[in-house]
Design brief:
Number of helices: 19
Strand content: under 5%
Structural class: mainly alpha
Number of strands: 0
Helix content: over 70%
Distance between the termini: 27 Å
CATH architecture: Up-down Bundle
CATH topology: Growth Hormone, Chain: A
Largest sheet: none
CATH superfamily: MFS general substrate transporter like domains
Oligomer: single chain
CATH class: Mainly Alpha
Number of domains: 1
Amino acid sequence: MNERSVRIAILVAALGYFVDIYDLLLFSIVRVQSLTDLGVSALKVQEVGIHLLNVQMIGMLLGGIFWGILGDKKGRISVLMGSILLYSLANILNGFVQTVGQYEVLRFIAGVGLAGELGAGITLVSEIMGKRERGYGTMIVAGVGVLGAVAAALVAGMVHWRTAYFIGGGMGLSLLLLRIGVLESGMFQKQGEDVSRGNLLLLFKTPARIVRYLACIFVGLPTWFVVGVLIVQSPEFGKHMGIVGVTAGGAIMATYSGIAVGDFISGWLSQFLQSRRKVIALFLALTAILILLFTRSSGLSLAGFYGLCFTLGIAVGYWALFVINAAEQFGTNIRATVTTTAPNFVRGAVPLLNTAFLAIMKPYGMMAAAQIVGLGTVIIAVISLLVLRETYGVDLDYVEQ
């Protein structure tokens, strides 16, 4: 594939992920304002907000399976554009909701749509780039994409929450105009008709393959513990720390700015050290340290709190490596399935993480619960990393039997 086609594919994948993250995090940013406008009492905002976030994540979990299988059966481009269309329309409709019930349905549909873009984009980019350079491509996709959260926070701070949803949906629909310049993966196209594509059973054919697939998922758990528990509930954590003025939008903007930095640093380091595993291990260690710091902090200024969120973002900014590592672990005929389901199963684990957090919080308190669950995810991720093979520079042009 020529250099221009590769650049266009990276651009579309990066911008698609930018809008994906914008729409994904927008609900968390406007959670309090939107639920209050819909008549939810102040005492119920946290409970209802967690429920709606869980519904959205369940949609992403199911959507990950759907889009992943479709990506291996019909192609990476069909999923990339189909998911953008679905989540864009769903988020426009989010701007019209009048009841919590309507909000619930549309957050689920949006979740299904949001599940496809990242996996399809990373699969496409990893297959069209050289095996020694593809880390740079996925670094750009993830690093640029996560800045969508910063854009969401800025937009939500300037316009009404309904308008913020309209803007997100409009940006997504405008991306569809770029489809004409994106070419399909050559690896996908040259597979023979006798190859079994998108067959979930292939992932469970042998115990070793099952363990490898689960390990791909578990490595990413700390990232979404930080985002889905600590940062989404940052107003409540800030209040517990005695900090005045903490908003979800401010915390998300600070954290995702850090994640963008972390994605670029981890991506560059993996290319420099020629290792995915070493860099992920380094970032997991940093994540553990910062979870401890976050859960033991008190008396911080507002700027200090947001600075801590930014640093936490850097620590969990190995997301790009997590996704490309999943893509590199499996053959072309189930690569989109793995690359799409793995990040969405991590996101889909947020309801379980929230349930564990709330259950432990009742007897032990908010900070102890966050510390126990957070460090638990890091331990699981480290054990999973030990199971996975090093994939830097491996040839991806093969199929699973």
